[in-house]
């Protein structure tokens, strides 16, 4: 495609200095004459002086006059524009319908004729699989589970009984959906009695779940991941948790039971949230933070226990100086005592 064609596809403006045909995408620092790149992070702006890219997607505030040899596409959000063009060029094709003879499929299961179920997969009783959904090898799908249209289930995923999965859901390899919630009652002798987890998991449309992530079934009702949420690898979501729409949960985060997370929430890596809390909409929790009480106001929070990020930054700036401040205080205390003794 010519840069002008790419710009039209994106609804952006093209500034073309030389004619090129773009047939691939690449990072700005390594892109060649026939490749499209993008610039959204200012620290990569230095590569505009050396890049050989055939065209670069940039923000309107870039002074393109400094680079008369380069072609540009001007977009407000270059990162988003680049994602769109990659999705356009590398859009996955619908899977070829196929049912592997080496798979076990219960006679009561309903699999759409356009779906694909690959080798060594187990499909239990009363399972329903929708249009153009692909289930890769070694997947377990428990009884009474429903999987919607255009889903992609990677190898070695376990989907326990009664799970409900919407349309356009991606579940990466090794994830476990619907495992037992961690629920026990302790008797007078200290013995831990397992509480049967008789609820389920509901995954709404357009959700992606990363490799090794576990989402536990509810004790009584449903653990719910709402529409558009993206979950990274190695995340633990406990029983009866509810995650709101379009939230992002980054690797090694853990959410304890019955916590309600709002919509458009970002939980950065290794965030820990205690149980039975509520996190408001539009909250950002920075990496390695610990949440021990509910958060009712939008904004950014950091620390263990977490509090307002702006205050945390100020305290963090002081923290490396604490020992020196401690020594100065001890010295001042000593001098004050000497003055007091002298006056007495």
UniProtKB/TrEMBL annotation:
<feature type="active site" description="Proton acceptor">
    <location>
        <position position="239"/>
    </location>
</feature>
<dbReference type="InterPro" id="IPR007691">
    <property type="entry name" value="LpxD"/>
</dbReference>
<keyword id="KW-0012">Acyltransferase</keyword>
<dbReference type="Pfam" id="PF04613">
    <property type="entry name" value="LpxD"/>
</dbReference>
<keyword id="KW-0441">Lipid A biosynthesis</keyword>
<comment type="similarity">
    <text>Belongs to the transferase hexapeptide repeat family. LpxD subfamily.</text>
</comment>
<protein>
    <recommendedName>
        <fullName>UDP-3-O-acylglucosamine N-acyltransferase</fullName>
        <ecNumber>2.3.1.191</ecNumber>
    </recommendedName>
</protein>
<comment type="pathway">
    <text>Bacterial outer membrane biogenesis; LPS lipid A biosynthesis.</text>
</comment>
<feature type="domain" description="UDP-3-O-[3-hydroxymyristoyl] glucosamine N-acyltransferase non-repeat region">
    <location>
        <begin position="20"/>
        <end position="87"/>
    </location>
</feature>
<keyword id="KW-0443">Lipid metabolism</keyword>
<dbReference type="GO" id="GO:0016020">
    <property type="term" value="C:membrane"/>
</dbReference>
<keyword id="KW-0808">Transferase</keyword>
<dbReference type="Pfam" id="PF00132">
    <property type="entry name" value="Hexapep"/>
</dbReference>
<keyword id="KW-0677">Repeat</keyword>
<dbReference type="GO" id="GO:0103118">
    <property type="term" value="F:UDP-3-O-[(3R)-3-hydroxyacyl]-glucosamine N-acyltransferase activity"/>
</dbReference>
<dbReference type="InterPro" id="IPR020573">
    <property type="entry name" value="UDP_GlcNAc_AcTrfase_non-rep"/>
</dbReference>
<dbReference type="GO" id="GO:0016410">
    <property type="term" value="F:N-acyltransferase activity"/>
</dbReference>
<dbReference type="InterPro" id="IPR001451">
    <property type="entry name" value="Hexapep"/>
</dbReference>
<dbReference type="InterPro" id="IPR011004">
    <property type="entry name" value="Trimer_LpxA-like_sf"/>
</dbReference>
<dbReference type="GO" id="GO:0009245">
    <property type="term" value="P:lipid A biosynthetic process"/>
</dbReference>
<comment type="subunit">
    <text>Homotrimer.</text>
</comment>
<comment type="function">
    <text>Catalyzes the N-acylation of UDP-3-O-acylglucosamine using 3-hydroxyacyl-ACP as the acyl donor. Is involved in the biosynthesis of lipid A, a phosphorylated glycolipid that anchors the lipopolysaccharide to the outer membrane of the cell.</text>
</comment>
<keyword id="KW-0444">Lipid biosynthesis</keyword>
